[in-house]
Amino acid sequence: MLENTISLVVDDSRTVRRIVASILNEDLRCKQVIQCENADEAMALILGGDVKVDWIFSGWELQGMSGYEFLEKVRKNPSTAMIPFVMMTSHDDRESILKALNAGVTDYLIKPFTHERFLEDVQRIFSLRFRRKHPRYRAKDANPVEIVFKDGYPYHGNLMDISVNDVLVRTTLFTKGMTQIYDKADLKISMPGGSVSLNGELFRMERMVSKDRTDMIYSAFEITKIDKASAARLERFIDGLREEISKM
């Protein structure tokens, strides 16, 4: 998902930097992660021109220049103003959150966080940011999809289209449990050469217009977690769909 991005992690805690860098590298497959222990060093790095930073993860409570002051400097400089900036902070009061939002923060993560919670939140942030930037390709074959929600009820459908961030599936109505928007599910998509397993979050349901069936819907899932092997297989599948389109 993040193979072509360079992230900058700024925090005066070596432990926090190590944990965040590890998640970005190992779980999210970031191309490169740069670590700085203070905002002055980080600002000098991104203004130096030697490296193009795609994302900034910064603590608020920093020695010297605070994370909030760092955010203000990033937003006021034309060359850095558009870099997504995620604030990592223990300030969870409404006033602090509004202050960061008004200054142009992309999102914020509340400390302390577990590995699982940080990973989940970052996947949400990145997916929302990139969802519209990645084209979706229509599946040319009837690729079966199995969907299992947290209540354990399985549903079966067919893949309609797909991107590296989300999938659209045609299924019957989710009538067995209490399925709602934002519910999480395990998806298994059958593809040539094997299947792809991933975790997804339901973000859209739309009734399918059909004269013959009244129990069919389109369900769209944001990909929230996928292992390296499945991600590689998914990318190869999408590359194949892209090549088919280019030959038309």
The sequence of SSEs as H and E is: EHEHEHEHEHEEEEEEEH
**In terms of quaternary structure, what is this?**
single chain
Specify the helix fraction band: 25-40%
The largest beta-sheet arranges its strands as: 7-8-9-12-11-10
Number of helices: 6
* Structural domain tally: 2
Average pLDDT figure: 85
Q: Whole-number radius of gyration?
A: 21 Å
Strand content: 25-35%
Number of strands: 12
CATH overall fold name of the largest domain: Rossmann fold
CATH superfamily of the largest domain: Response regulator
Largest sheet: 6 strands, antiparallel, barrel
Structural class: alpha/beta
Spans of at least 5 consecutive residues whose pLDDT stays below 50 are none
Which term fits the overall shape? elongated
- Which architecture of the largest domain per CATH? 3-Layer(aba) Sandwich
Q: Span from first to last CA?
A: 28 Å
In the CATH scheme, the class of the largest domain would be Alpha Beta
Can you walk me through this structure?
The mean pLDDT is 85. The chain folds into two domains: 6-131, Response regulator (Rossmann fold, 3-Layer(aba) Sandwich); 137-247, Beta Barrel (Thrombin, subunit H). The protein is built from six helices and twelve strands. The protein has 248 residues and is an alpha/beta fold. The strands form two sheets. Strands 7-8-9-12-11-10 form a six-stranded antiparallel beta barrel. A five-stranded parallel β-sheet has the order 2-1-3-4-5, sandwiched between helices. It has helices at residues 14-27, 39-48, 67-76, 94-102, 115-130, 228-247, and strands spanning 6-10, 32-36, 55-59, 85-89, 107-110, 137-138, 144-149, 154-162, 166-172, 184-191, 194-207, 216-225. A hairpin with a 4-residue loop joins strand 7 and strand 8.
